[in-house]
Amino acid sequence: METNENNDHDEATSAHAGETSPATGSTSGHDGARASSNSDEGELYGVLAEFDSPGALVKAARKVKDAGYGDFDCYSPFPVHGIDEAMGIKRTILPVLVFCGGITGTFLGFLLQWYCNASAWQWNVAGKPVWSIPANVPIGFETTILLSVFTTFFGMWILNKLPQVWHPFFRLDRFTKVTDDGFMLGIEAKDGRFDAVETKKLLESAGAIAVEECYLDASPANTKMPMFIYGVIICTTALALVPFALVYKARASHSKDPHYHIFGDMDFQAKVKSDQYNDLFADGRSNRGEISGTIPRGWLNDDTSYAQGLENGAWITSFPTSVEVSRDLLRRGKQRYEIYCSPCHGVDGRGAGMVAVRSQKIGQGILPRNLVDPGAGVITQPNGQLFNTISNGNNTMMGYGAQIPVADRWAIVAYVRALERSQFAAGTDLTDAERSAAMGATP
Amino acid sequence: MPKAWFIALGVALVLASIGAYCIYHVVMTGIGAWGNNNSVGWAWDITNFVWWIGIGHAGTLISAILYLMRQQWRTSINRAAEAMTIFAVMCAGIFPIIHTGRPWLAWWMIPHPNDMQMWPQFRSPLMWDVFAISTYATTSILFWYMGLVPDLATFRDRSKTKLKQAIYGVLALGWRGSARQWHRYERAYLILAALSTPLVLSVHSVVSFDFATSLNPGWHTTIFPPYFVAGAIFSGFAMVMTLMIPARYLFGLKHIIKAEHIEAMCKVTLATGMMVGFAYSVEFFIAWYSGSEYEQFTFINRSTGPFWWSWLSMVTCNVIVPQFFWFKKCRTNPWIIIVLCLLINVGMWFERFVIIATSLSRQFLPSSWSYYWPTKYDVGVFIGTMGLFLTLFLLFIRFLPAVAISEVKNTLPEAHAGKDH
Amino acid sequence: MSAAHEASLHPDEKYKAGKMGQKVVTGGLVGFVVLTALSWLLSGSAAGHTADGTGHSRFFYGYLIGWTFILSIALGALLYVLIHHLVKAKWSTSTRRVAEILAGTFPIIAIGGLVIIIPLLAGRDDIYWWANKGFDHAEHVSASKHTWLSPAFFAVRYVIYFAAWIGLARYFTVRSRKQDETGDLALSKQMQFFSAPAVIIFALTICYAAFDFLMTLAPQWWSTIYGVNYFGGAMIAGYASIALLSMILQRTGRLQRSITTEHYHDLGKMVFAFTFFWAYTAFSQFMLIWYANVAEETVFYNYRMFGEGWKWVSIVLTFGQWLIPFVLLMSRWSKRILPLFAVFCVWQLCFHWLDLYWNVMPNYHWGAEAHGAAHLVTGPLTGPVGENNVNFSPVDITTWFALIALFIAGIGRGLKGNLIPVKDPNLGASVAHENY
Lengths: 443, 421, 436
Hints:
The complex is a heterotrimer. Chain A is of the alpha+beta class. Chain A is built from 17 helices and eight strands. In chain A, a hairpin with a 2-residue loop joins β7 and β8. In chain A, α5 (94-120) runs antiparallel to α6 (133-159) and α12 (327-340) packs across α16 (406-423). Chain B is an all-alpha fold. Chain B is globular and about 70 Å long. Chain C has one domain (2-411). Chain C has helices at 2-6, 20-42, 56-86, 96-103, 106-112, 114-121, 133-137, 143-148, 151-182, 185-213, 226-251, 261-292, 295-306, 308-329, 333-336, 338-360, 368-378, 394-414, 427-431. In chain C, α3 crosses α16 (338-360) and α12 runs antiparallel to α14. The longest helix of chain C is centred in the middle third of the chain and has 32 residues, at 151-182. Chain C is globular and about 70 Å long. The relative contact order of chain C is 0.20. Chains A and B meet through α3, β2, α4, α5 and α6 of A and α4, α6 and α14 of B.
């Protein structure tokens, strides 16, 4: 661990810095003229003073401020308390920026959700309003935080004029102590009150343990950004554009290559599909037709009275022998009738179903047959003919053979017969017991 | 130390590889490779997701909330805890993405104009998750990085090779510890802490909304948001201790992470554990008080039904185990702390499992009642995320400042000399 | 040793209460009696509930709101004391005695609560529907409700809650006052040691008290977060009241140098934090119930969102109790300019009362006199939304003031001896405390 080595390393560094100070040669007072005499050094950037404690730094900072300096700064490994006030640093505007960033985040978060769900794609989910504000609060909150965080983070670096990986003070070995245990104060030469001699005197009188001059590098090549960094920036930018260029190209280009299959075994299953080529058969088709002279199991239909309602070419008037008319059959027939027949013929069979009513309302269509009216003729039809009508249709009525199985068709026939009878029932149809019960029920 | 570090890294990488293989298998086969081919569709997957997210929350709590409360002991562990947050969120994020079944389409959750004319459905709590977790990950990374910068500058100034100087130099962004910079930096740090606090509250609340907005008995209860947050901090602190206690010994950080810091963390764990236990009891009481037979059945089924063993583990580890922290002996003996913390982590995993498995296996329709049992891929993916987490943590602790150097210095008595001017 | 601690106070500091307490007690009690009598008269002569919002039930409803209001202040102050010891805080030492005085009001609040409990035990249903005969015949009320909601058991729980709170408050107040005389550090240790179990007792009692006193007003309805939500409101009220009482004491020339802007700044932070927390719990409860849309639960918000008047109360509450103070208290200046901060404290207390009003009052319209026998069986929150409108009554306000007067009398009892823990070892650090 690096932190472990702290102590030994510290001393080594500071000893090293104290001994040599290669940048300026000496820490003792030289005048500013020395700068021009040294060919390595460029313009004087400023002076840097080191103090032995945060307290001394604060005192010095106040003194420098009181002397009227503006372009100076203190450097320390951690924020020193009281230094803001000593240096006269104004409170940063950052919180205000963050507040604005946060409000923008709230607004954008709700706008996004409003646009997506209440404007562009209004989709009913669980019967909730398309713009459900309570459900939008969590995301509105998160976007508020996110934009506040971005404003804080990037705002702080921008206000601090960072990243700036190079700074003149970095040329001084002493300055590396600033991130360890050094407390420094630097005054820049551009300050109006700066004077190489007076300023250093001021710092020394403020209790500096060492004062150093800092010069800019004499050779302009060293102060400029190296060419390779420009190269890196240009290359990175160019490379970053490549994916977008590819996407752009893909929008309009055609390719004969099949697309990439992620799930081979799902896209290409080991089975034969109906329209595929198959070399097992002479005609090369996978799809095989029925084999002549065969019928599927259960498709024989040799009982014409059951399958077609015909016996010896005439409609049967009773029920086929395999159909047993029972209460269950009638119940089944009622249920099927109400599903398939009642929409047109009505629940009571008088032809006033929903479809019929509606078509009358809009003045279209032909009234369905009244099944129970003796005048309409259905009542007199033999059972076989009724069965046939259900199976194959009549006039504008379509056949229901495809939807209703044979057994159910017979159930419907039975129910229709019961319906016809019920609509014209006489009191005499009831037994005595039934009659008295019915009378009792309706006093 | 490096030898132990290499062995640990090796183990972590092996675990991570197992996870990578299992994820590969699950993605290529379909998520039915897990044991969730029944009504318990959330299974281990979401259990692990919630568990990892919860682990992460302690990092934010330590770095942000304790900062706001001026708890200076946090500086010894906050950097490691923040790193833990980021790694835990990474592990957590893996699960819902695989759980979509088609992870390569996960970007559909990002709102963007598309040829289907479809937009994300923002009334869904799962979309809230997307925003909450990604905001949380972003904020945690920025907060962590911002805290790292002054320490990276220290590394830069102490590096001896050019390469290290260049790398740390770029990462440190040219930080030079100027008072004017420190001023804005401190404000920004305070603001980020103040923003992270409600954020961490919202993230686990949103996770709890995934459950609580539904109608499922046992999920739909209004105390879920604060209860989940307390549980998250509870498990997170246990995880911080699980990591930091060995690190103290292995990396010789005993003089920085002091015994009283560990003790303070034990107390926080106890407090949050009590909150979790309190929420359990309120849930049971309200289920009884409400008179709703579904609620009542759910809670009876939780404790006595087919998953009784998971409920029992949960109550034992989350309610009974932390009670040992009442005793100073238990708060000072590293071995006891480690065992208790591991049990708490197990217990908090079981808490999510109990919530998911018992409620989903007994929904309103008895026809969809089922039982959940993990397959080897459930286990493998979970182990894999642990491997990933350990790998990242080991790399971090070796190559980045694991202790917030500048913040620790700031809390030393010498730093306050400046006040007595 | 103790001399050193006392030295942390400025030599000119006035920290003795003197004889102000007696006057405050008398004034408070007179105010309470007068205002209660006035409220009773204002509530008309009809017994029970009436459709026009008068009747003695109105008096009891208003009284319950005012009573839970002062109770929440005392609870907030009590937790301040507990947390202070639990986390071994330093900054909060200066204002701790003020909090202890506020927490010392529990006995008088317990006596004030008898106005609710005695009629209940006598079989009256002025407040709680479950005390009505209709409750026994109501559908969908399970056996568990009949067990929990019987007047006798309710009264037993009332005694338990107040025994716990009075006990806790006394434990810490007595030791704190004793330390004033002896300066014994062992007392600090004792208080720190007991604070952890004390917080547990506190958490359990406040949660179940909120269920009992407020949530059972609509016994068909439930929400697990309800107690936490009341706790959030109580903390806002507690911290705001500590700040206000400190300011009032400073107006009398006392504690000029030991309670500083820094302390108000920190109290303001806590008011701000709990404003957020309250909104968080309130939103969690609302959003989850709104989203799941289960009939038994949404009924609570049905009245408060769609009732013509209640809709506006809800909106005002959202802005008044949360959004406006949240945005304004975020800034540093709003907590450090003391007259402004005082306004915020009063503001938050008023809206805390409105929050309780919003919780309690929609349950009012269920009585037989107002809506006939059917309502008697179905209970509160069951009729059409339109029937259940806000009609503010002067009784609501006079009962509130009556209970504030009672609370002031309770404060007066504590205004004696030192107004600051003079020999607390952390007092020096607290007085010198600075925010950075």
